[in-house]
Amino acid sequence: MTPPTLFNPYRFAGSGAKWYGDRGLCFGGNSKSKTIEYIEIPTTSNATDFGDLLTGKNWVSRQSPSNNDRIVIMGGDTRTVDMEYVSPASTGNASDFGDLLLALAGIGGCSNGTRGLGMGGDKTDYSNSDVIQYVEIDTTGNATDFGDLVLGQAFCCGISNETYGLAAGTEPTGNDISYVTIDTTGNASDFGNLTVGRRHPCSVGNGTRGCFAGGNSPSPTDVIDYVTIDTPANATDFGDLAANMGAMAGCDNNDRGVYMGGYNGDTSSTQKACQYITVDTTGNTTTFGDLTNDTADFGGGSGN
Questions:
Q1: Contact indicator for 156, 108 with CB cutoff of 8 Å
Q2: How many structural domains does the chain have?
Q3: For residues 259 and 204, what is the distance between their CA atoms, to the nearest angstrom?
Q4: Could you give the count of Cα atoms lying within 13 Å of 91 in the half-sphere of its Cβ?
Q5: The domain that contains 179 carries what CATH number?
Q6: Which residues pair with 199 in a beta bridge?
Q7: Where does 75-143 show beta strands of DSSP type E?
Q8: 65 occurs within a structural domain
Q9: Relative to the CA of 183, which of 137, 198, 272, 289 has its CA 20 to 30 Å away?
Q10: Is residue 8 one of the residues assigned to a domain?
Q11: Per-residue CA distances from 4 to 1, 21, 256 (Å)
Q12: What digits encode the pLDDT tens for the residues 2-56?
């Protein structure tokens, strides 16, 4: 397997430590794939095989909680309590982390580099969960109750900085954004609204700005909108994806956000293309490269 070429330690920007590195991972996908693959975010090249999940699954946490050493993959279809983890600096198969509080798919994940949150999700009865749960990323074990979202949010996406964690979008076509202070426990507060209500959006960010792309509203959309994470308010238009797309996987470093794969509504085709934005600017996406996995739609992503 190919060793890491551009793995970075913690970066510093502004007043605090950022946990962004240059390797992005994509987990699982449609047809319950076990595939894990990775890209080097500063390049625009194709993905490389990383290893396998313990079990094949889709609808895992869309932006899986991570720090510089570990990524935690939460839930998945068919609604499961499983959590797995990988060490992004190396390649290899996932290991067991522990169990969620309840079986879920479509969780919104985020972290502050120490604590990882799983927000909402789709329950075994196909209803939206309002549960927020957390893990300490460096310590394997079962999740602990954090509090509740403002309302149930399933197939949402998460984004965060060192202070706040946001959950955006919901099944079937909600535009809700909720937020919490990650270091505390308690219920979420209303943050604002997306410009377009949808499920299966994908998030990338840089600690200051969070960008939400695509999703189903109810058909796939090309919308990208953004918020300033420290400032509760409605989202603002950022630009457009190259095509209408839902259920992408996202990863980012301190500069660039990459949207990987996705579902364009055509069940006869597969979407391996990746595209990227520069998070601090606004504008349309640029072509990045291709995933190796031709079933990567409905997969999950994260960066180290």
A1: yes
A2: 1
A3: 8
A4: 16
A5: 2.120.10.80
A6: 216
A7: 80-86, 95-104, 108-111, 115-119, 131-136
A8: yes
A9: 198
A10: no
A11: 10, 11, 18
A12: 333 233 322 323 333 455 689 999 998 877 889 999 999 999 999 999 999 999 9
